Amino acid sequence: MTPKDNKSETKQTSARAAAAAAPASSMTVCPECGKETDKTVRNVCPECFGKKLNLFDLPEVLHARVCQRCGAHYYKSKWEDMGTPDEVAMLTAEEHLAIPDGIENITVGMHPVARSPYIYDVLVDVEGDVDGVTYYKNGKVEVRIKREACEMCSRRAGGYFEGIIQIRANNRTPTKEEITECLKLVEESMMAQLKKGDKLAFVTDTMTFKDGADVYIGSSKAGKHVCKHIIEVLGGTVAESYTLAGMKDGKDIYRTTFAMKLPEYKKGDVVYFEDKVIEIKNCGKRVTGINLMNSSNFFIDGEHFKNTKLLGNTADAQEAVLVAIEEHGIQILDPVTFETVTIQKPMGFNALPGSEIKVFKTEYGIFAL
After folding, report:
1. 40 — phi, psi (to 5°)?
2. Which of 23, 73, 193, 345 has the fewest Cβ atoms within 10 angstroms?
3. pLDDT value at position 321?
């Protein structure tokens, strides 16, 4: 072989080696458009896949149901407190937004635009990845808001009630002030239960009588809290009874009657108990007051406050002239006989002789208040 032939052979060998060492081309041909591409998505180029990809589905028009009284929104088959109309429009669009399987790293943006108080355009932007390629699509949906009454407001307007709170007093007639206070406590407790999510925590009707009041309530559960609240503040007891009111979904529906009894004694009552004359300050689970015989504080559990005798109320106290003040007693003119008598001096007594003071006359003596 000549030197010329040897050089030619060497060049060919080097070319073949270089070709063998070079990496294979990563370019492929899209079977749909015929273009070469270095990236495929589901076996086609990203452009061809993007043309047939529907990144999301959303109806052109949607309807939202909003309660015209309480503002609740009918969402996912139940009435919910959802806030502003803007939020209702977005939640309605979100509920019906459909994104196909296989989309990763999804980002959704929504922006409501009010055309009127009852019609909103919700602008929708969706971005997601398929096989590492990011796709984007935007659109809009019209949300029409329909005003109606939710289930709870319909019940309230229709006089619905699950329970009756019968407010009475034990062995006496409650005062007007006590009834007013009880009705105030009913409203306070109902508002608290409503804020906790009990949509039936409302008063349907209130009827007052000489002997007390009947309060019709939408929720028996809330009724239990009402009675507990009254007892904590004013004392008393409650007994529950149940009446069959009908059936719903194959189940018996019962109404609850809460027989609420205020304590036998109220603030200002004067009673005789275990050789003591007690001016009542509070008569609940715990009875508190003043022992008028020695001006000491009195307290006892309500369940042990029995075998008592009502002597009257401090509202019936009489005026008496203070004659003189002694170390442990005071002299007054009996408001009935006008005789000078000495009675127990109350703790902290600071009236001046010649002035008139309040006294309470009983068969156990006269006591200064």
Report:
1. -125, 150
2. 23
3. 93
